Structures are given as structure tokens and as C-alpha cells.
Amino acid sequence: MKKKKTVFIQGEITSEFIANSIAKHQTKTEIGAHNIFLGQVRKDTVKDEVVSAIEFTCYQDMAEQKLDEIREETFDKYNLTCMHIYHSLGKVNVGEVCIFVFVSAPHRPQVYEATEYIVNRVKSEVPIFGKELFETGAYQWKKNK
């Protein structure tokens, strides 16, 4: 039975977490390229309301199953050495990172294509929901773009 990957992190994904993830790959000498996608919460203005944070929730079992499917299909499609997907749950403030995708391969073309493929599938297929919290205390459910 394969080890279940940790995907969800409570709150923001810190720069220390990201740096440690990168550092762990320095011993994997078959890797020639890494690509990283970091999604951070924007200070959008929506109908005169200013976003201060996003509160993320999900159907965790369904989301983990879908992420595992995306992971397996990505490994089948691209010649990757490693792939990591992390997403925040709970409140993430403006300017903080809420999604971290880290892809490694022997050569660079695969990492660029695979990263975009993963991010697009996560945004469109995984049941993760964001509630935009406004500075006034109001909120609305965010639509993925």
C-alpha cells in the first residue's frame, strides 16, 4: 500500500515550508530541473468591497482522491522525478501563499508543461472552495478563474 501524501496545510503555506521542500531535493542528483507555482491571496476589490483573506474549505476525502488521480495521470503523461501539491485550508490572509505546486524532472521542458497541467486541473476539478472575506466583515464565495 502506497503512503498517503499530505496535501492540505492549515493556514498559509510559509516560506520556510517552501524552502525546506526545495532543500530536500538537493540530494536527488537525477533531477536537472524544478518548477514551482505559488498562488497567493490577492487584495481584490469586488463591488467596492476589499478582500482581506480567503477561507478555504473542501470535501477532504473527495479532494484527496481527485488530487491522487491528478498526480498519477501527471506522472503517466510527463517524465517527472517528483511532484508535490499543497493547498491551504482555513483562513489565509492577503499576500500569503495558499497553493504550492513543486515539480521536478531530469530536463526542463517537462516541468513547465506539467506545472501548468497540474494547476489548471486542481483549479477546475478539485472540490476546494474559497470564501472571500472582506475588510467590512462581509463575504462571498469565490469563483475559480
Q: What is the string of SSEs from the N terminus onward? A: EHEEEHEEHEE
Structural class determined from secondary elements: alpha+beta
Shape: elongated
The proportion of residues in beta strands is 35-45%
CATH superfamily membership: Molybdopterin biosynthesis MoaE subunit
- Global mean pLDDT: 94
How far the N terminus sits from the C terminus, by CA atoms, comes to 36 Å
CATH class: Alpha Beta
Walk me through the structure:
The structure is a single chain. With 145 residues, this protein is α+β, with helices and mostly antiparallel strands. It has a single domain, classed as Molybdopterin biosynthesis MoaE subunit (Aldehyde Oxidoreductase, domain 3, Alpha-Beta Complex). It is 31% helix and 37% strand. It is built from three helices and eight strands; from the N terminus they run βαβββαββαββ. Strands 1, 2, 3, 4, 5, 6, 7 and 8 form an eight-stranded mixed sheet that branches. Helix 2 packs antiparallel against helix 3. The longest helix is centred in the middle third of the chain and has 18 residues. The radius of gyration is 16 Å and the shape is elongated. 24% of the residues are buried. The mean pLDDT is 94.
